[in-house]
Amino acid sequence: MTEPIPGLLDAARLLFDLQQGNEIAQSFSGCLDPEEIARRVTDGLVEKFDCAFARIWLVEPDKTALRLVASSGMYTHTNGAFARVPMGAFKVGKIAQNRVSFLSNNLANESWVKDRDWALTHKICGFAGYPLTVGDRVIGVLATFSHQVMAPEFLEFLQILCTTVTVALENAVQHQQEKQSWQPSIHKLSWSNLSLSDHLASILSSVRLTLIGTEQPLTLPLNYLFLQAAEVLQTMGCTYCRLIYNTQFVGLEAIITAPDLAFQAQSDWVRSAFEPFLFTVSCLGGVLQTQTGANHKVIQFLLKLPYPSSTLGARLRIHCRLPVLQMAFTHLAYLAGLTVCDTTDQEIPLLTDELAQIQTAKRVLWLKQGVWALPKGVSAKVDLAISAVQLREAVEAVLRGKTWGIDSDTESQPLLSEREQEIMSLLAQGLRDRDIANHLIISESTVKFHVNNILSKLKARTRYQALHQVIVNGWIQ
Length: 477
Prior knowledge:
With 477 residues, the chain is an alpha/beta fold. The chain has 14 helices and 16 strands. Helix 7 (220-235) runs antiparallel to helix 8, helix 11 crosses helix 13 (444-458) and helix 12 (433-440) crosses helix 13. It starts with 10 loop residues before the first helix and ends in a 5-residue tail after the last helix.
């Protein structure tokens, strides 16, 4: 796959990680034991993301130290050297004290690592530590260690997971405290029964939240965005908020008290606060808008996301040469109700514009952008004008063993004449122009004339590029 542009997340990878994370979240759904929740999270990170090991510490009641409650992977014990970390000590204690995450993909060379030989011996490369925060309080720290460099998409997912884990742990800790104090509560709710509005109300504690419509369960990515938006709104002085459940979308509207700044400075302030969400909102087919009021005293905020189907659609692999196309078709697939996955399973349909990728799938949707003929083995033809509905139809058609968008057999035929195919076949055998001329009983200049025509038809710069195309497409034997 073409390397993504630095700073630009791979939408397909991010959505796949979010789907994996959704399974981790479901594993502790309904659990009210903090240590069990933590263990299921660390187990999930090791099993689904191949972390070397993962750990979670919880802040002790006296706020002076953190206690290791879950460890999975290389180390499963919770009574070792880092079983209890004083607040502010080591990197874990500093993360908790300063409420600042720390990321590194070169752990052995970090000055704070006391045992550099350990990192080198065990080939530990990546480290990511995140504070688990509720408002201005820290309730714990999640840390992961990896043998490989941690991708930016995985780090983005970890931040998302931390929000969900924090809410679950906070509810579980409160439940345990109530249970120990023998104070019965008929309103006690498990994580699985807590609605989005309940979570938003707890975050926006100083704002009266209004609920419009019938509340329905949402997926992990959508829950994450609304919870993160609420966290930001709370810090920005939100004075009004309502959660809207429409038949087609879920929305969060809010009014923020504008700071006493110039108009451009206000705009920059708002944009910097919500900019981290824009990429994910775009991938999920949503809209995030802010608008300053006429008197510059308030700022209106709107986050609107399409309501996903509760049943995941057909799976689809996407492999495009350009990152912008990769992101665009990932977004389109999401709108179509399809599940974008990152796997090598050849049974799952593949949408691609790379000839070399065709051999990795049994069902291929070819993204046609020029005048080239369709490659051999393609089941469907799509282009840049395809809609979400059409993409879903194409995927469902190839899954049934049918073709889609291919008007006639001529579309899949090579552009080369019989003589041109014959010359390319001889070139593939390693023959020189003189040898080909002798074999076909034509002049060497005629051979060169045919080769130039072939390069022009295939839009290839060199003979090697032309040979690659005709071999991959099966135009020569």
